[in-house]
Design a protein that fits this description.
By secondary structure, the chain is an alpha/beta fold. The chain is built from five helices and 38 strands. It folds into two domains: about 140 residues, Alpha-Beta Complex (Spore Coat Polysaccharide Biosynthesis Protein SpsA, Chain A); about 260 residues, Hexapeptide repeat proteins (UDP N-Acetylglucosamine Acyltransferase, domain 1), CATH 2.160.10.10. The chain starts with 8 loop residues before the first strand and ends with a helix.
């Protein structure tokens, strides 16, 4: 019997496109961002049936460390003694794929776009993986073609999210034990049919919960709690240990250990964030460790129904989206009653108070008015440490250095 070919080691790579997804990637590789019911990393692992050994990303993310995440490593530190599959962090695969080793090293494509590299044992990886452009196929074509498509602009993480929840639930239908034949008796359902509700272990629902399946499925991960008077409409994903405290939720993806109340629609919350009071959040993406004060509200629609323009590291861009709310980096805090305009971008470590902020707020801003100052890093870090300790998560030295780096580059 022939020996089974050795499976390649899998890595995810940032590039010059995903590294522009500020403020969401200022403290993490793009592969750890949530889209649908899975991070880019977990989706790649699930559909390729390979663990991700690390992220090839920008040097300033060296030391990156978050719970249940792969580390950032340098491409030069990836040993060549085994085959290596380097996949773009922005690749969105659409079905399971078995990777068969080709006869030569070469480019990987997803939906006919350059999406990485497959290197056989002993062959070097192309230079620049993790920061520069993805290498394209040579005249002989790609050695591996994967089904799916590539995310390009940061606002697509909001625009594509609801449909991706549907796809992620469909891709896990073979896990029959995870899907319920009926809705728990504590909840009232609308439009339910088998295969539309996935429940993790230890999910709790209080009487008075309404689950609406007419627009899509709902996935409640382990230890999710739905308090009374919560109305949750699919397609929706709620991550491990998160609590919906009451209110109206539609087409949302909420990561682990969040507490959320109010009206939330078409939005993504990466994890470990609080919106524990009333207020509207729409067509938004929030990083980790965000805390929204009571009645914080964002606009996601212009009064003239025009398309929303958004700050990017390359200048203001027309998103082509009629609805787009806000993008908030990690550790952003807002005061009570904060109002955010359509298409507002707020950088990492900012504390907003004192009025409606401009549509772009740099990292580590203290205040919201025209005379807003800097949030001194030496004052910020102890606060971040306390906030994380409330979830029994330490602030690692590597992440402390990454945050300090964001502050220093802001000052440069």
């Amino acid at each position: 019997m022939a020996e089974r070919a050795e499976a390649p080691r899998l890595f995810l790579a940032d590039d010059e496109v995903s590294r522009r997804w500020s403020p969401l990637v200022d403290v993490r590789p793009a592969g750890e961002l949530l889209l649908g019911a899975l991070t880019f990393r977990r989706r790649a692992e699930r559909l390729l049936r390979l663990p991700v050994d690390g992220h090839l990303s920008a040097p300033e993310l060296a030391g990156y460390e978050e719970p249940d995440a792969a580390p950032v490593i340098r491409s030069s530190d990836v040993a060549s003694d085994r085959p290596r599959l380097v996949l773009s962090a922005r690749a969105i695969l659409t079905r399971p794929v078995g990777v068969t080793l080709p006869e030569r090293s070469g480019a990987v494509t997803v939906g006919d776009e350059p999406a990485g590299w497959l290197a056989l044992a002993g062959d070097a990886l192309p230079e620049g993986l993790g920061t520069g452009p993805l290498p394209g196929p040579d005249d002989a074509g790609p050695v591996l073609e994967l089904p799916g498509h590539m995310a390009t602009r940061v606002w697509e993480l909001v625009a594509m999210n609801a449909e991706q929840v549907r796809r992620d639930v469909a891709s896990t239908l073979h896990d029959h034990h995870a899907f319920t034949a009926d809705v728990p008796r504590e909840a009232t359902s609308i439009g339910f049919s088998p295969g539309q509700l996935r429940l993790g272990s230890g999910v709790t629902m209080e009487p008075g919960v309404v689950l609406d399946f007419r627009a899509g499925p709902i996935w409640l991960d382990d230890r999710v709690t739905l308090r009374a008077f919560t109305r949750l409409a699919g397609p929706a994903y709620v991550g491990r240990g998160s609590t919906l405290l009451g209110g109206s939720f539609a087409a949302v993806s909420i990561g682990p250990a969040c507490k959320v109340r109010g009206e939330v629609e078409e939005s993504v919350i990466l994890g470990h964030s609080n919106k524990a009071h009333d207020g509207f959040l729409g067509h938004a993406y929030l990083g980790r460790w965000v805390n929204l004060g009571a009645l914080t509200t964002n606009s996601d629609l212009k009064n003239n129904y025009g398309t929303v323009r958004l700050w990017t590291p390359d200048g203001e861009a027309d998103t082509g989206q009629m609805k787009l709310g806000c993008l908030l980096g990690d550790h952003v805090k807002t005061a009570i009653g904060t109002m955010l305009n359509t298409g507002t971008v707020v950088g990492v470590g900012t504390n907003l108070f004192g009025g409606m902020p401009p549509k772009y707020v740099p990292p580590f801003t203290w205040g919201a008015a025209a005379d807003a100052g800097d949030y001194d890093i030496e004052r910020f870090l102890p606060v971040a440490e306390k906030a994380m300790a409330r979830r029994d998560i330490p602030l690692p030295d590597g992440m402390r250095a990454i945050l300090r780096g964001v502050f220093e580059r802001r000052e440069a």
